[in-house]
Amino acid sequence: MLKILMTRFRQGCRTMAFPKRKPPVLPARYRGRPLVAGLEEIDLGKMTFVPDSGIRHSNDFRMATCRRQDLVLQGETYALARAVNRKIVKLFGRSLKLRQVSAGGCNACEADTNVLNTPVFDLSRFGIRFVASPRHADGVLVTGPVTRNMKEALLKTYEAVPDPKIVIAVGACAISGGIFSRSPEVSRGLDTIIPVDLYIPGCPPHPMTILDGFLRLLGRLKKE
Ligand code: SF4
Asked: Is residue 31 assigned to a domain?
C-alpha cells in the first residue's frame, strides 16, 4: 500500500490543465483540421482522416460545429461550435448528463469518448458525466451510423430524455453514415432522424476534439 501511495505521490497530478492553460501538443502524426488551400471543398462530416489521401492536415483539433453545413470547408475560415442558447447554457452549463447510444459503429468512437473519463481528461471536473438511464440524462451522444436495427432503440432513448435536451453526433458515421454510407442498412446521418445540436467530426474524433466541442457547446470555451 505504501509503495502505491509513494508511486502516486511521485507521479503527481496527471490531469491536463486545459482549458485554463494551453492545450497539449499533439504528436506529429496526428491529422487535424485539413489545410484546404488548393482544394475545392472538403466535407469533414464524411472524412475518415486516413493517411496518404493526398490531403494535408494541420494539427488543429478544434473541429466541432453546431451546423452540418459548417463542416463543409471551402476556405480557411471555419465556424466552430458555440453555445446553443442562453437557456441551455443556464440549464446545463455547469452540469450536463449524457446517455451514450452506440448505434452500429466500430467501437473506436466509443473508445475515444470513454477515454474522457480517465484522470488525464477528467471530464467530470466540467460537470459532464455519462449516465445509464436516459431518464436521468440531459441529452444523448450518438456514435455509429444508426443501423436499421438500432433506429428504434435510438428513438426510444431520445424520447425518454426529458425536454429540453441536447443531441451530439460523434464521428463520421453518426454525421453522414461515414464508411457505411452506401449501405441500405444505415441512415444518411443522425440529423435525418432527430435534430442535432453538435457535430464532432473524425473517424474517430480525437478526445481533444470531443472535449473541445462539449466545452464550446456549453459556452465554457469561446476563443477561436
Ligand atoms: S466514425 Fe469511424 S471510428 Fe467512428 S464508428 Fe464510424 S468507422 Fe468507427
From this structure: no
Domain range for 205 is: 86-217
Q: In testing the pocket of ligand 1, which one of 173, 175, 181 has its CB within 8 Å of the most ligand atoms?
A: 173
CA 27 to centroid of ligand 1, rounded, Å: 21
Using CA atoms, how far apart are residues 135 and 99, in angstroms rounded to an integer?
9
Q: Is 176 in the pocket of ligand 1 (CB under 6 A)?
A: no
Mutate to test the pocket of ligand 1, among 110, 179, 186 (most ligand atoms within 8 A of CB): 179
Nearest atom of ligand 1 to the alpha carbon of 202: 1
Q: How far apart are CA 36 and CA 68, in angstroms?
A: 18
* pLDDT tens digits, one per residue of 32-48: 988 877 667 889 999 88
Per-residue pLDDT tens over the stretch 57-77: 889 999 999 999 999 987 767
Neighbours of 81 (CB within 10 A): 25
Q: What is the CATH number of the domain that holds 153?
A: 3.40.50.12280
